[in-house]
Amino acid sequence: GENVEQHPSTLSVQEGDSAVIKCTYSDSASNYFPWYKQELGKGPQLIIDIRSNVGEKKDQRIAVTLNKTAKHFSLHITETQPEDSAVYFCAAYFFSGGYNKLIFGAGTRLAVHP
Amino acid sequence: DAGVIQSPRHEVTEMGQEVTLRCKPISGHNSLFWYRQTMMRGLELLIYFNNNVPIDDSGMPEDRFSAKMPNASFSTLKIQPSEPRDSAVYFCASSLGTSDYNEQFFGPGTRLTVL
To answer: Taking a C-beta distance cutoff of 8 angstroms, is the pair B92, B6 a contact?
Structure first.
């Protein structure tokens, strides 16, 4: 069935270090992969996304990579700052029931220590 | 734009009581989603509306849960009767549509505690 696996579940880094979160998906037909950031007491917010026609996308300190053959995609945060501390969710769209359904990974709780 | 608005932000109720959660999507958005977030199961899609019509309710856990969207600017999620295992954060999200992977905008959520 439709599934997105995300690792690690928790990640602790020192300010200035890099953080990497990895996800795999089950449906090879999936072709759009957003990443959401959820701060404490708030709803998830889209921070970056990638479509299957590209292998990498960057936005300042954030980058996503996609390996369609391996059905694997990753979020990379460089020069981490305390305000990057949050829960990050990867997601993938699956065509199901006549529409594109968004399935989320379990989330990664990132802690950036000053 | 005020974003997606949810009320109440917090709800504490006793087992067996009826609970109604409310959502106002972003103006102009024609798709609305209700999600439930728990530590054990993460973010789960409960129901999806498009143009006020329920398209996919396969995520609704059981008959105690019901959702309505009487117009483009309002939706409710009702639990009757509520049970302790319903305790979770419930999010409403809206988007312009689903045909082209449009971004889903999430509300702040309603934290429900059933005692």
So the answer is: yes
**CA gap A52, A71 in Å, rounded:** 10
**Which residues of chain A carry a pLDDT beneath 70?**
1
Residue whose token pair is 């059933």? B114
CA B111 to chain centre: 11
- Using CB atoms, pick whichever of A102, A103, A106 lies closest to residue B104: A102
Q: Are A19 and A76 in contact (CB under 8 A)?
A: yes
For residues B69 and B87, what is the distance between their CA atoms, to the nearest angstrom?
Answer: 23
Residues 6+ apart with CB under 8 A from A58: none
Residue B85 backbone dihedrals phi, psi, to 5 degrees? -70, -5
Within the 61-90 window of chain A, which residues sit less than 8 Å (CB to CB) from chain B? 89
Residue B90: pLDDT over 90: yes
Instruction: State whether residue B4 sits within 8 Å of chain A by CB.
Output: yes
CA distance, residue A82 to nearest chain B CA (Å):
22
